[in-house]
Amino acid sequence: MAAALTRIDGVRLARWVEPGNAADLETNLGQGEMRAAYEGWEGVDVIVHPPGPREKKLLVADMDSTMIGQECIDELADYAGVKPQVAAITERAMRGELDFIGALHERVALLKGLKENAIAHCLAERVRPNPGAATLVRTMAARGAMTLLVSGGFTAFAGPVAEEIGFAQVEANDLAVEDGHLTGKVAGPIVDSAQKLRALENARDELDIENTDVLAIGDGANDAPMVAASGLGIAYRAKPALIAVADARLDHHGLDALLWAQGIPRASWVVA
């Protein structure tokens, strides 16, 4: 394994973070060259860092299709009988083909009249964290990092998900409800890509840290500004619009592999 990792000229094995699973390599290659050399290897995720400390002090994460494996609005739409229509809009919005705010209003309008209790059923029956999500969040929190879940989805889902996974703070949209039914509207300001970036910047400033101390992760186009602004921006099973601006991709491993990327071995993880 070590020989395979160092088959590229100018690359040497510095140490194993986790023997057989995660290794630190040292190289004079540029970030793009390093990624090109190793990405595409079966089962290998490549995360390139500059020299120096790399453990992060702030984690900012998207929820749908990142911390959880579902798009909540698509699953909720199934209870209203309109999942195909909503899911098609979601896919185009996440690829950056549609204005996010307009697409959100269009999808929420299709939910008009759905009973509010469908949200609780959807949470219980369909919403599940992605592998390694809770371990990543709880380990970083235990080591002193601030953790923020910031979602273009809804607080009715994001609140319980944040509590289950271990996020300290959450920011998301509110679904308007009247007489126990969804009105088809969003209540209050929209959490879009610009607001996600502002949430990251506000948390960074509150902690008095630099962008280099921030880890941000998402999967879609509306995550691009916050991922691009972070010291380590991760595209998780992501759309091309996000991959284009991210520092690294996580295509194979669970989210807890981002602890290895920070030099934290499994023995130090808070396993959820």
Structure write-up:
The protein is α/β, with parallel strands linked by helices. The protein has a domain at about 1-45. The protein has 13 helices and 9 strands. It has helices at about 1-5, 30-40, 65, 70-80, 85-95, 100-110, 120-125, 135-140, 155-165, 195-205, 225-230, 240-245, 255-260, and strands at about 10-20, 20-25, 60, 145-155, 170-180, 180-185, 215-220, 230-235, 250. It has a 7-stranded mixed sheet with strand order 6-5-4-3-7-8-9. α4 packs antiparallel against α5 and α5 (about 85-95) runs antiparallel to α6. The mean pLDDT is about 95.
Could you tell me the radius of gyration in angstroms? 19 Å
Overall geometric form: elongated
Please give the number of β-strands.
9
- What is the makeup of the main sheet? 7 strands, mixed
Unreliable sequence segments: none
Tell me the β content: 15-25%
Structural class designation:
alpha/beta
* Helix content percent band: 25-40%
Strand order of the largest sheet: 6-5-4-3-7-8-9
How would you spell out the order of helices and strands? HEEHEHHHHHHEHEEHEHEHEH
Average pLDDT confidence is: 93
Head-to-tail CA distance between termini: 29 Å
Number of helices: 13
